[in-house]
């Protein structure tokens, strides 16, 4: 269920909604800081560039089983409970079989705001959707006074539109300004195979990060989830859940934009990886903690042996 529809339906009685007020926050399996390095992504304000870029392969592998997912600026959450300076939340635009209403995890309470004006505008107004890897949010209409750097697929309620700028509501209830050329209106998003491939290639070279859903670092399923959101299609968060939806596509009928799934046991066991077909036997994907977003032949090595099948979500 797309998040604004859940907000519109108010969800179950008594739930408390909030939104992320940092460029990106990590949802953790358990609350509490475990490494000194993570202070960069836990403090306020966060320093995502230093946190992501400061991790070598071993530090990235450490995240496996400790980080759950990431949520980006303005992304709405259900707040389940508080434990000290931490909140247990559900990211409601990241569908999951884990919890009916989205993807769960723990975040620093300081990263979340509960402003009703923002949540109401998020429900009622079209959104300005960031289409570039990183875009600055400005304090002034003449695009001066940059306040924060926003990730791909950040979406904020549109208050006014001008030739050069868009005025948006920000999570704490204030207003900000975005360059018009760097956003699309959420009401205008539509699936296009050429466009989704073009946008995917903007991220070539971005380092894999376990649980990543942001421009700073993606895991395999977080990457394709955000790409499909750019086309107005909301897929589940994890690869095994993504594979349960859509229409099965034969290998000889693949089209650019179809998702390719890979599983252990010669493609027969648990799905562990997803990539997006770009055409001519090639996929774009975010493979593992020792790699970056890259292009690979789907008939090469491990990918050929572990191919599970392909799914198409827009016919």
Describe it for me?
The longest helix has 10 residues, at 220-229. It is built from ten helices and 22 strands. It folds into three domains: 3-114, no CATH class; 125-187, SH3 type barrels (Roll); 193-312, endopeptidase domain like (from Nostoc punctiforme) (endopeptidase fold (from Nostoc punctiforme), Alpha-Beta Complex), CATH 3.90.1720. α1 crosses α5 (116-124). By secondary structure, it is of the alpha+beta class. Helix content is 20%, strand content 34%. It is globular, with a radius of gyration of 19 Å. Mean pLDDT is 95; it is low at 1-11. The chain has helices spanning 3-9, 39-42, 48-53, 57-62, 116-124, 193-201, 220-229, 239-242, 264-267, 301-305, and strands at 16-20, 24-28, 67-72, 76-83, 86-91, 103-108, 112-113, 127-130, 134-138, 146-151, 155-161, 165-169, 175-179, 183-185, 213-214, 217-218, 247-249, 259-263, 271-279, 282-285, 294-297, 307-312. The strands form six sheets. It has a six-stranded antiparallel beta sheet with strand order 17-22-18-19-20-21. A five-stranded antiparallel beta sheet has the order 6-5-4-1-7, with no helix packed on it. It has a five-stranded antiparallel beta sheet with strand order 13-12-11-8-14, with helices on one face.
Q: What is the class of the largest domain in the CATH system? A: Alpha Beta
The H-level CATH homologous superfamily of the largest domain, spelled out, is: endopeptidase domain like (from Nostoc punctiforme)
Query: Which outline best applies?
Result: globular
The total of helices stands at 10
State which percent range the strand residues make up: 25-35%
For the termini, the CA-CA separation is 19 Å
Largest sheet: 6 strands, antiparallel
Count of DSSP strands:
22
* Average pLDDT, all residues: 95
Structural class by helix and strand composition: alpha+beta
CATH topology of the largest domain: endopeptidase fold (from Nostoc punctiforme)
What's the quaternary structure here? single chain
The CATH architecture of the largest domain is Alpha-Beta Complex
Radius of gyration: 19 Å
Order of strands, widest sheet: 17-22-18-19-20-21
Low-confidence parts: 1-11
Helix content: 10-25%
Q: Please give the domain count.
A: 3
